[in-house]
Design a protein that fits this description.
With 67 residues, this protein is α+β, with helices and mostly antiparallel strands. Helix content is 31%, strand content 15%. Helix 1 crosses helix 2.
């Protein structure tokens, strides 16, 4: 019987990936992290990873009659 490989979507992204997903600059992502508005995780001494589910938390609705 052949061994099956399960491919799953990544749960984390890096700063550049987060900036691409939110259509903003990497500096904006760094600012959100520094301000405590976006949670990030260190991987080693330099690498920063952001959980994809946390990216939606920084977005807030406006306009369209939303109070």
């Amino acid at each position: 019987m052949a061994k099956q490989t399960v491919v799953t979507a990544p749960e984390y992204t890096d700063l550049q990936g987060a900036a691409t997903i939110l259509s903003c600059d990497e500096r904006t992502i760094r600012r959100l992290i520094a301000d405590g508005k976006l949670k990030a995780y260190k991987l080693g001494t330099k690498a920063v990873r952001i959980r994809l589910t946390d990216l939606g938390a920084v977005l807030r609705p406006f306009g369209g009659g939303v109070a």
